[in-house]
Amino acid sequence: MSLALSAGSLGGVSTTTATSDAGARTGRLRTGFRSLLDAAVTPLSVDDLLDHFAPLRTGAAAGLQGRIVSVHKETADAATLVIKPGRDWAGHIPGQYVRVGIDVDGIRLWRTYSLTHGPRRDGNISITVKAIPGGAVSQHLVREARAGQMVQLAQAEGDFVLTPPVAGRRQKLLLVTAGSGITPVIGMLRNLYSRNEADARAAYDIVLVHSAMKRDEVIFGAELRAHAEAGRLRLVERHTDTDGLLTTADLEAEVPDLAERTAYACGPAGLLDTLEAFYDDRRLTLHTERFRPTVVDLDAEGGTLTFAGASATTVETDGSVPILDAAESAGVLMPSGCRMGICMGCVLPMKSGAVRDLRTGELTVAVPGETHPDGVKIQTCISAAAGDCTLDH
Fold first, then answer.
1. Interval 3-28: pLDDT, tens
2. Is 133 left (phi over 0), alpha (psi -120 to 50) or beta?
3. CB-based contacts of 318, cutoff 8 Å, min separation 6
4. For 333-392, how does the pLDDT look when each residue is reduced to its tens digit (9 = 90+)?
5. Stated pTM of the model
6. φ and ψ at 190, to 5 degrees?
7. DSSP assignment, residue 316?
8. Spatial CA neighbour of 268 closest among 211, 215, 209
9. Is 23 helix (H, G, I), strand (E, B) or coil?
10. Do residues 334 and 347 touch, judged by C-beta distance below 8 A?
11. How distant, in Å, are the alpha carbons of 109, 115, 129, 173 from that of 259?
């Protein structure tokens, strides 16, 4: 006697259906268990607790974060921060930058910094920050940041990256940097020479022209000089205090074959403007990376309010008038619960510009390319324009 069972069935019950039912029951149990845990930790949620104890996990509710592993002084005013990113970090190409969010005096501020290393075996990333006089974020990171501190991260961005060399052909490069403009370039160099030095030497012929105020202010100075001494590149190091500002005439004299070299430049705006005009006149290609300084007129009173959206509107306003009032007076329909005692109902993201808190006088600034892509949230009922502003509405 034979016993035949049809595939996928047992005793007239489909195993697919049974699996589906089991999965549904498991899902209901998980949902119920999650609701129970959320109730147990009210007013917090389970995600709040996970964000506290496992902030680097995949899909963290607080978004992509990183934990500072170490802080290493490079010069008196610059430091390298090694950061362990969360598991959602998608990686980067040397030369790219990352937006970093840090809480300073209770306010989350975002700035962009070049990644100063290629992909590392330990999965960490590094940025090197130069403290700018009056710079809230740079001063905090260089002077006060400590191992264990958490920071917010965005994914890597930017196209200031080396083009792959043509097989069998040595690519001639000219890298021109000044000050902290060396940071994306050091990431390129470290990546090249950490993988296979022989291959890197065969693929690239590199001249690096770097300018800094003084010899002891050259970020990565010892490392750059070691590369030069080992014959990995030709280093032209200039110090403004003794050599003066780098000019295009200096560049032509130091690098007579510059027209044959693929050129990359990163540094202050004045240097890049000069180089771009020089290369345009000669119809040569120059790849640049501009650091966008946060420039705020501390004495600015009023300006324009541009509300970006389906029907863009621009409003002129006085520096003593809350944005909420100025917008409503111009006929802009604004979100608000202030008059009903519902606080934070008037919050809008500012994409660019500066506003002044009418209670404290403190400035909040949003800079495209540095501020988080979603903008900086401001309370329009207590904020007034301190210059021209663009709000997402």
1. 333 333 334 444 445 555 665 666 66
2. beta
3. 301, 302, 326, 384
4. 888 776 555 677 888 999 988 898 887 788 888 887 667 778 888 889 889 998 899 998
5. 0.66
6. -60, -40
7. E
8. 211
9. helix
10. no
11. 41, 28, 32, 10
